[in-house]
Amino acid sequence: MGLLCSPSKRNKVMDMKILFTEVEPADEETIKRLFEGHQFKIYNDIPTEDELIEMADEDTEVISPFIYTKIGKKTMDVLPNLKLIATRSTGFDHIDWEYARSKGITVCNVPYYGSNTVAEHAFALLLNLVRHVCPGWTRVRSGNFSYEGFRGTDLKGKTLGVLGTGRIGLHAARIGKGFGMEVIAYDVILNEKAAEEIGFTYVSFDELLSRSDVITIHVPLLKSTYHLIDKEAVSKMKRGAILINTARGGVVDTNAIMWGLQEGILKGVGLDVIENEKSLTADHPLLRMEGVLITPHIAFYTHEAMTRIITTTYENITSFEKGNPINVVN
User: Domain spanning 2-113+303-321: which superfamily?
Assistant: First the structure.
């Protein structure tokens, strides 16, 4: 499904040709209002790369995808006027950004839309797991008000390990401190000022694995972070740990966490993302395991965050248009 809008007669200053994909109907009016003066197409669906090429035309200068639209070499090679890929997300692993750089195509993202939003969802998953909220509600709905088997665990006094201390990770650290948790963190880039202000300590990766009662992941998916949590990492975790992932599915080896659950190393797993999540089916073995809670990639998905995403995307495109690109990742 698509919508084509032509430039307004009132504003001819901005006239870039833009293709938006994965746009929810609720967000179309905001895009039309902000991008008045441009020629743009809006598509609601997730296109394959061939469909994306068919949607665009050789005059397309900007593509603004969301998290599932793959943009690779094939697309870039057949769109001679493509200058900018403005993803409406923080992650950009769905874009071949290195090839884009070689072609002189700028890639920018939305780095700050959901720092609190995603961190809050990480704790929503955690609280559901440690206090048995979902199974409790299921039991009550069946007419059984017994609390047998639902003894929970306090967060106060437990150790929270934060993997990645960007904006989301730092917000998770603040929330953890609010619960009275000891917070430790690992990152390849240290933010000692934030550590002092919030009150957490940087440790090695292995020490974080071995000491943490809860590990929450907030790193991008890069070659260096693919399967960061693998079987070896799980084997080093504190017995009875809980793992939360609201970052990217590929950071965690699904087979490794299934093994960790079977071995009793992991007590619980809360995932908002999972490898190949669009191909997840009801018979996936992870869905039948105890101590697992999965949500459908909704950690970012609040009214406030979606507004920030579209507004920042507008700023990214118009800044590029004026010759001052911002939030560039390549």
Answer: NAD(P)-binding Rossmann-like Domain (3.40.50.720)
